[in-house]
Amino acid sequence: MEILAVEGLSVRLTSHPGQPTILEDVGLTVSPGEVLGIVGESGSGKSMLALSIMGLLPPALAMSASRMSLLGHELAGEPREAWRTHRGRDVAMIFQEPMTSLNPVMRVGTQIEEVLRWRGGMRGGAARRRALELLEQVEIPSPRSRLGAYPHELSGGMRQRVMIAIALAANPRLLIADEPSTALDVTVQAQLLDLLRGLRRDAGLSLILITHDLGVIAEIADRVMVLYAGRVAETAPVRTLFDAPAHPYTQVLLASIPDITIRRPRLATIPGTVPAAGNMPQGCRFAPRCSYRHVLCERAPPALRPLSAEHEAACLRPFGELPA
After folding, report:
1. Mean pLDDT throughout 113-124?
2. Is the whole-model pTM more than 0.70?
3. Complete domains list, the chain, with CATH
């Protein structure tokens, strides 16, 4: 059974029913033990998608989906209260910036124990011992002394590990990591990725990893979904995506990765910017920035269509060669 299955997910502003959607017709699946990587520029809707899956959208945004099945429980169309049963216990999230996600006036141990009280019914010494075990599991140095520390007393890497410990407190089956290595140096980033790999292996966790770093995706993901301006541009197994990218947006994303083996006068860039929610093109949202755009691209958004058994792209001209 799939851990998560989403079909036809859309998000729009409730106060602007006529405005283009922020997320439109997004679909994804996550199998047991699988790592799904989600990539795209800032403004593509990656974090919005994560918050939608968690049921944490603000009141100004309305979500609709033809299907949202979490461990066999259908949540599409359910009120916000229905999500509370599953949030933390079945699906948990590591937020992008731990300093703004952790309570600055509560000790680390207290914040972990809070989850254990609400989700595990633990109290007193049992909750304290389990909090210590979780800090040991995420490999925080001197975990016993860190229980009494405040978030500002920890480094960025240790705060991120505390966030992972809180997310693991209720033993979820699916973990969503929203750019967990942002602002960390490469050594700490490597340690964090090793930790996530270990949790996947030892605890059987499924993982949705949101990141800008395609190197991280290549290292840890099984499948990749490329988002652009709220729509799915391409989905493929990680090796297929890197070896044979079909969508022009995926191609230029990969081309923009610096390569120390090739001497270039300047780095490759993508012209233009991701369109704002209120200024979306009528057709393909990438068309204004695409070197291969056709008049048909501007009339209607291309549907996501299969290119092989596990490879899909929303493009009228997939596999077009990049210009020299």
Report:
1. 86
2. yes
3. 1-90+172-324 (3.40.50.300), 105-171 (no CATH)
